[in-house]
């Protein structure tokens, strides 16, 4: 029997249930993967509550990414073999012991990662890559302001921003989160509760402001970001964990600034070539030891609600993974 977290009614993480199902036979072209770890992302929580743009038909299993071992390859499935260690890319369905997928959903695991790291890599770092490279076009020497730098995508942005040659200003809510951000390359650290970040950015840049703002928080954070930007700045809207912010068009006009929405998955569905370039770069960087997700919590599958609460309560530093034992 296969265990899976099931959403039968939209609501809080505690409304989900861990259920068992018989393993189904493969259809031609399909592959069976024994899931060893699944990564949690904030969209998983939003999807379960019905607040995400993708609204799967009920019932469904949440989870966008996982890692495991190929255990069976169906007829007509190409490019994969039993025993392969793989990352599994899904729109939902990853919180389970076993997944039946197409070969196109599989990516070889970096040899430098364990299962939990592999299961928490591509969504967060892929979003940061798309934001900073495809959308923000961060250049060496520019100032990059990263909000929520203790979160999964925030830490990924710190790492990639530093690789691109930017001066990285990381903001977060605790010293512990900022210490991890520093270890991943942040040049300047700002705690939200000790100094208004817009004042800190002006101080650090001698009044010039940030060239690029990476914002997964939204709300007042987005609105205050417009008051500490340089001429020609790019404000990257990653998410809205802190609420939906309003763009002050007069501030954008005065600074010649741009507000850019970031949807890494949708961008690849619209233009698959973007995804191929991104994936190649991320896997190479991982193999060379340049990028690695910080997995602060590893919990068993049955603790799915507790794991999701870690994201909601902002207690995770980097990523959270469900580990199948």
TrEMBL record:
Recorded coiled-coil stretches: none
- Pfam families per record: ADH_N, ADH_zinc_N
Look up the signal peptide feature and give its range.
Answer: none
Annotated Enoyl reductase (ER) domain ranges read 11-322
Q: By its UniProt entry, which InterPro entries does this protein fall under? A: ADH-like_C (IPR013149), ADH-like_N (IPR013154), ER (IPR020843), GroES-like_sf (IPR011032), NAD(P)-bd_dom_sf (IPR036291), Zn-ADH-like_protein (IPR051397)
Entry-linked CDD domains: QOR1
User: Can you tell which superkingdom this protein's organism belongs to?
Assistant: Bacteria
- Name the PANTHER family for this protein: QUINONE OXIDOREDUCTASE-LIKE PROTEIN 2, SHORT-CHAIN DEHYDROGENASE/REDUCTASE
Name the record gives this protein: NADPH:quinone oxidoreductase family protein
Organism, as annotated? Bradyrhizobium guangzhouense
């Amino acid at each position: 029997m296969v265990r899976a977290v099931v959403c039968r009614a939209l609501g809080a993480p505690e409304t989900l249930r861990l259920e068992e199902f018989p393993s189904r036979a493969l259809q031609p072209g399909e592959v069976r993967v024994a899931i060893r770890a699944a990564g949690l992302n904030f969209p998983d929580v939003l999807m379960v509550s019905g607040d995400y743009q993708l609204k799967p038909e009920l019932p469904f299993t949440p989870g966008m990414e996982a890692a495991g071992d190929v255990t069976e390859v169906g007829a007509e499935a190409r490019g994969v073999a039993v025993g392969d260690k793989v990352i599994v890319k899904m729109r939902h369905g990853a919180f389970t012991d076993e997944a039946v997928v197409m070969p196109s959903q599989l990516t070889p695991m970096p040899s430098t990662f364990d299962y939990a790291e592999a299961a928490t890599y591509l969504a967060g770092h892929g979003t940061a890559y798309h934001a900073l490279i495809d959308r923000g076009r961060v250049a060496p020497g520019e100032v990059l302001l990263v909000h929520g730098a203790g979160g999964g995508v925030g830490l990924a942005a710190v790492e990639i921003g530093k690789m691109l040659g930017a001066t990285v200003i990381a903001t977060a809510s605790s010293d512990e989160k900022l210490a991890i951000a520093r270890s991943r390359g942040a040049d300047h650290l700002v705690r939200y509760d000790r100094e208004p970040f817009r004042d800190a950015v002006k101080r650090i840049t001698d009044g010039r402001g940030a060239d690029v703002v990476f914002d997964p928080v939204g709300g007042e954070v987005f609105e205050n970001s417009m008051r500490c930007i340089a001429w020609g700045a790019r404000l990257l809207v990653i998410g809205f964990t802190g609420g939906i912010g309003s763009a002050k068009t007069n501030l954008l006009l005065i600074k010649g600034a741009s507000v850019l929405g970031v949807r890494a998955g949708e961008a690849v569905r619209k233009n698959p070539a973007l995804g191929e370039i991104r994936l190649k770069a991320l896997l190479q960087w991982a193999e060379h030891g340049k990028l690695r997700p910080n997995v602060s919590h590893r919990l068993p599958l049955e603790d799915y609600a507790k794991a999701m609460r870690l994201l909601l309560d902002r207690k995770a530093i980097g990523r959270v993974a469900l580990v199948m034992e």
